[in-house]
Specification:
4 strands, four-stranded parallel beta sheet, globular, 6 helices, alpha/beta
Length: 128
């Protein structure tokens, strides 16, 4: 775990673009720990829908900051992320909040460390 923690620390130590956009606020602890910022489309509930005004504000932020990836969580609908990505020219990428692994993931021996390494690789695509 210490190695994984150091990988995250090193990856985000000297980045200038620190904000990543997610479909809902599932990564606050991770963001706080490594000095990056999560901008959720919806709040803590993955089923919550943002108001049109909130969605417009996030869309403006994404365009102004040239954010090219909108993250969605495994095991939830990617609809909000896909909508924002379509409207801004970004693409969607999955992050795992570790709430559960699919049967396919379990069968491939995916564990906490591997999931967090995958999340790090995904986040490094937009946090630079």
């Amino acid at each position: 775990m210490a190695i994984l923690d150091q990988q995250y620390t090193d990856a985000f130590a000297h980045v200038s673009q620190k904000t990543f956009v997610t479909s809902h606020a599932a990564f606050g602890y991770l963001a706080n720990r490594y000095g990056i910022k999560q901008l959720p489309i919806a709040g803590l509930s993955p089923d919550a829908e943002p108001s049109p005004k909130e969605m417009a504000k996030i869309k403006t932020f994404v365009k102004a900051n040239k954010i090219n990836i909108i993250y969605f969580e495994a095991l939830t609908s990617p609809k909000l992320a896909e909508t924002l990505a379509t409207e801004t020219g970004a693409k969607t990428v999955e992050l795992s909040p570790l709430e559960g692994l699919s049967e396919e993931q379990q069968a491939s021996d995916l564990d906490y460390i591997k999931v967090m390494e995958n999340n790090l690789t995904a986040l490094q695509k937009s946090i630079k």
